């Protein structure tokens, strides 16, 4: 049964050059049509994945802060009616820090949003221009202050390891960031994703990404500074005061079930992977035709479930319990990982073992992809 609900709002005012998310620019959006379609998609999913109160709801995008607050409120009312909300339910909305969107913060809070994730991305105007953001640093800081005065919990994002970025520059940015006192920070290294404008720019020689070794060093600087500020990394890119972790994202990383509605949304439902139609117009047509936006429902073989659980769980500082994963999938604990590689990585200080639990150390996190490829059993990686 779903423990969490993800609602995708695919629209943005502009497409950022680094973004490979399912986001689209449209001159007009028919809010009434979208409300009807999202409600229909939600009801269909609740019929199949209901029965347990939601611990979290997450509005992602796209730019959900462009949603009319009345629509947000209507969706939350329906979600509570269909599933029920667990005590202390976490309701997060991703927001951009433009003044237009910040003006909706009070109405969004009144609609039920109690946590906002703010896409500040940088405190430096030149970096914001490079990243194609529509706000400047001053506007971002004003929105952050307003968010802190409006919502119960606030997180904000920064992107680092930009071309030519020095350790001194990033230390100055991060030192300022932790002083704002938010309980959560998402700190992402710039990654050149396929199909983005940045990929084209790099291929054409427009800029050279930061060297991998320099980026890895900035990762270690990030871990050191956030831990010292009381915001230790609980996931490879996410830092929080103890108890302030994103409950919604922990549902993903702990491989628990969640419902996903809206264009391109993914979900996990009792061993079945669900995927909605990606293009907004195709999703709307599917809802009108079928009463839901599903494009695919696929029962995942147990080895594939085990692989997903490992690849997600090993991102977390807490690691995961191999005995519990074995009980869930029927795959013996010693068949989930390549024992010789685990022991080798442990000897190198990249992996830790504690009874049935295994995890990646802070030293190993910058090498996470290589560590995972090395120690997850071949049969699972190929599943």
Could you provide a short overview of the structure?
The chain is α/β, with parallel strands linked by helices.
Describe, in plain words, how this protein is organized in 3D.
The protein has 383 residues and is α/β, with parallel strands linked by helices. It has two domains: 249 residues, TIM Barrel (Alpha-Beta Barrel), CATH 3.20.20.70; 65 residues, no CATH class. Helix content is 42%, strand content 21%. It has a nine-stranded mixed β-sheet with strand order 7-8-6-5-4-3-2-1-9, sandwiched between helices. Helix 1 runs parallel beside helix 2. It is globular, with a radius of gyration of 21 Å.
The total of beta strands comes to 15
Helix coverage percent: 40-55%
Task: Please state the second-level CATH architecture of the largest domain.
Answer: Alpha-Beta Barrel
CATH homologous superfamily grouping of the largest domain: Aldolase class I
> Which CATH top level class of the largest domain fits?
Alpha Beta
What's the number of domains? 2
Largest sheet: 9 strands, mixed
Q: Could you say what the CATH topology of the largest domain is called? A: TIM Barrel
Distance between the termini: 24 Å
Q: In order across it, which strands form the biggest sheet?
A: 7-8-6-5-4-3-2-1-9
Q: Residue ranges: pLDDT <50 for 5 or more in a row?
A: none
Mean pLDDT: 95
**What's the gyration radius in Å?**
21 Å
List the helices and strands and how they pair.
Elements: E1 4-9, H1 31-49, E2 54-61, H2 69-82, E3 85-95, H3 99-102, H4 105-111, E4 115-121, H5 125-130, H6 137-150, E5 153-160, H7 167-179, E6 184-189, H8 197-203, H9 212-228, E7 233-235, E8 238-240, H10 247-253, E9 258-261, E10 266-269, E11 272-276, H11 280-290, E12 294-299, H12 302-313, E13 320-321, H13 322-329, H14 339-347, E14 351-354, E15 357-360, H15 368-375, H16 378-381
């Amino acid at each position: 049964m779903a423990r969490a609900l993800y609602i995708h709002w695919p629209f943005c005012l502009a497409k950022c050059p680094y973004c490979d998310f399912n986001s689209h620019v449209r001159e007009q959006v028919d809010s009434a049509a979208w409300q009807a379609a999202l409600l229909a998609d939600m009801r269909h999913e609740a019929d199949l994945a209901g029965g347990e109160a939601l611990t979290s709801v997450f509005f992602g995008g796209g730019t959900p802060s462009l949603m009319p607050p009345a629509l947000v409120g209507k969706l939350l009312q329906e979600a509570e009616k269909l599933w029920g909300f667990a005590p202390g339910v976490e309701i997060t909305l991703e927001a951009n820090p433009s003044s237009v969107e910040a003006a909706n913060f009070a109405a969004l809070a009144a609609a039920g949003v109690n946590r906002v994730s703010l896409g500040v991305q940088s405190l430096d105007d030149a970096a914001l221009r490079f990243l194609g953001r529509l706000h400047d640093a001053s506007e971002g800081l004003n929105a952050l202050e307003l968010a802190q005065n409006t919502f119960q919990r606030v997180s904000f994002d920064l992107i680092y390891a930009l071309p030519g970025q020095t350790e001194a520059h990033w230390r100055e940015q991060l030192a300022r960031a932790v002083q704002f006192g938010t309980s959560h920070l998402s700190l992402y290294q710039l990654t050149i994703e396929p199909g983005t404008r940045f990929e084209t720019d790099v291929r054409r020689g427009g800029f050279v990404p930061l060297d991998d070794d320099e980026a890895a060093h900035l990762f270690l600087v990030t871990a050191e500074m956030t831990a010292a500020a009381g915001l230790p990394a609980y996931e490879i890119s996410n830092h929080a005061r103890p108890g302030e972790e994103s409950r919604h994202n922990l549902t993903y990383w702990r491989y628990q079930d969640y419902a996903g509605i809206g264009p391109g949304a993914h979900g996990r439902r009792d061993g079945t992977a669900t995927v909605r139609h990606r293009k907004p117009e195709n999703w709307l047509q599917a809802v009108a035709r079928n009463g839901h936006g599903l494009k695919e429902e696929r029962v995942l073989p147990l080895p594939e479930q085990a692989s997903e659980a490992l690849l997600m769980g090993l991102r977390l500082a807490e690691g995961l319990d191999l005995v519990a994963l074995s009980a869930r999938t029927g795959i013996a604990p010693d068949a989930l990982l390549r024992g010789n590689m685990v022991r080798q990585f442990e000897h190198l200080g990249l992996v830790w073992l504690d009874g049935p639990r295994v995890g990646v150390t802070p030293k190993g996190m910058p090498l996470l992809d290589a560590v995972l490829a090395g120690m997850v059993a071949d049969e699972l990686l190929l599943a």
